[in-house]
Amino acid sequence: MDPSLSIFATTVDGVLLPDSNLSFLIDLGYRNDMTLREFGSMFERAAYTTSSSCWNRKSLIHTPFHISRLLESYEAIAREEQPNQEIQIPDPQVILESIQVVLNEIDRKCVSTDRPSILSEALVFICIPVVYKAGIQSASTGLDLGLPHIFVRAMASESILSKTPEPVTVELRPFVRHLAYAKDTSWISRRKVLESIRDPRASETILYEHSTGHVLEGTITNFYVIMKSGEVVTADDLILKGHIRSLVLDIAEKSLGKPILLHPARM
């Protein structure tokens, strides 16, 4: 499929690309009137993933990982929501092409505008709904979000590395995520509840399993313990295994020269 020939409708902020089973709603988010969290909250249950572009918007960081996790999450959610139905997994090539259309469109906007570069790199949010909310429409395109689409939203990417590291105060809370290994938009609303009851002195909530005392992960972070022996301990179950986690573990093992212990620390 040639993405340049498949775009059949454009608006100020979005591009719609059809496919035989799924279509792409590409919302470039230049108005920044909705955060990615707010955008994800519109979907009751959808598989999603978030990544940053690289090489001047030519690709996404670790694209194969994100596509694989997106499809694994979709299948996990769909099997839970539709236990007696045959699950149709979206074609990974279709997702790859939708990502490329987004990056091409962002690059075109950046190059063609007479304003300074809108984005140096982009933060790209991709989701495929499993459960739809009928009657909800996209503010920028008017498209019904209750229809089966691959939704892609891109916004300006902020550099995390540029921020000065500061001590982090955390709160420990007994809570185990449901279907933790899947990126499910329903977690966004559950996470919001945890954030609303968090001690205002804390900037993150670390989750642990009450029955065992096993420390699992943060609401938006991973949790590691560096032992006095130099070994790194981190949970390997009941958590979301993101690509940043895999990179951290790989670097830690190479730099420390010691094996990573994949079991949770205890309270």
Mean pLDDT: 77
Q: Estimate the global geometry from the Cα principal axes.
A: globular
**How much helix, percentage-wise, in residues?**
25-40%
Total helices: the number is 6
For the termini, the CA-CA separation is: 53 Å
Poorly predicted ranges: 1-25, 27-31, 114-118
Q: What does this entry show, briefly?
A:
The protein has 267 residues and is of the alpha+beta class. The chain has helices at 3-6, 36-41, 63-81, 92-112, 186-196, 243-256, and strands at residues 9-10, 14-17, 23-27, 45-54, 59-60, 122-131, 149-156, 170-174, 204-208, 215-218, 225-226, 232-233, 260-261.
Task: Walk me through the structure.
Helix content is 28%, strand content 23%. The chain has 267 residues and is an alpha+beta fold. A 7-stranded mixed beta sheet has the order 1-2-3-7-6-4-5. The chain is globular, with a radius of gyration of 20 Å. The termini are far apart.
